[in-house]
TrEMBL record:
Protein's name in the database: Phytocyanin domain-containing protein
Organism field: Sesamum angolense
SUPFAM superfamilies xref list: Cupredoxins
Pfam families named in the record: Cu_bind_like (PF02298)
PANTHER family given in the database record: BLUE COPPER PROTEIN (PTHR33021), UCLACYANIN 1 (PTHR33021:SF492)
Segments forming domain Phytocyanin: 21-121
Length: 199
């Protein structure tokens, strides 16, 4: 049971990793510099929770995360966290909301080296800015393994049944005597009843 939970968690992590996107700021036609239109670049992307920003830059720049007022005024004096430097900075977008990055080098933010990143919850990206992906092709159906040819099992012929029956005697209707009519005999009544002579 515990093993199943652990492997499920590992699978969920793998799915999350596979779904997370890395965005190199300004790429592919620009970068984290003063000559890239970073506002246009950011508006062409959809950032989701779990995605990562990758800042690649020459070492005369840095990555300074600031509040929106400081972003608007290009003030790097109150960074939300120590400025990142060194030429390669990875920022994990761990929650929904807006984050503001400027370059802390003097004059660079005013020169346009600033970017606002709007991060959406992974489960509900805005439908208007979500690029519609073509439907995935139907999964190829693996061919079924061919079955070995089917051999009909040849059964031996059944022995013929020989039950010679003795010939039946010719069928005769049982002799029936015609119904005998009871012979009614007219009994002759005496034609003349002779009464004894009247006394
Ligand atoms: Cu800079």
């Amino acid at each position: 049971m515990l093993q199943a939970v652990v492997s499920l968690a590992a699978m969920a992590m793998m799915i999350n990793l596979s779904m997370a996107a890395n965005y190199t700021v300004g790429a592919p036609n620009g970068g984290w510099d003063q000559s890239t239109d970073l506002t246009t670049w950011a508006s062409s992307q959809t950032f989701l929770v779990g995605d990562n920003l990758i800042f690649q830059y020459t070492t005369n720049h840095d990555v300074t995360e600031v509040s929106k007022p400081d972003f608007d005024s290009c003030s790097a004096s109150n960074p939300l966290q120590p400025p990142h430097s060194g030429g390669l900075t990875l920022i994990s977008l761990t929650s929904a909301g807006s984050r503001y990055f400027i370059c802390g080098s003097a004059g660079h933010c005013l020169g346009g080296m600033k970017v606002q990143i709007d991060i959406f919850a992974a489960s509900s990206p805005p439908p208007s800015t979500t690029p519609s992906l073509p439907p995935p092709p139907p999964p190829a159906t693996p061919p079924l393994p061919s079955l070995p040819p089917f051999h009909h099992h040849h059964l031996p012929p059944l022995p013929r049944l020989h039950h010679p029956l003795p010939p039946l005697p010719p069928f005769r209707l049982p002799h029936q005597e015609p119904p005998r009519r009871a012979h009614l005999r007219h009994q002759r009544l005496p034609s003349a009843i002779q009464f004894p002579p009247h006394l």
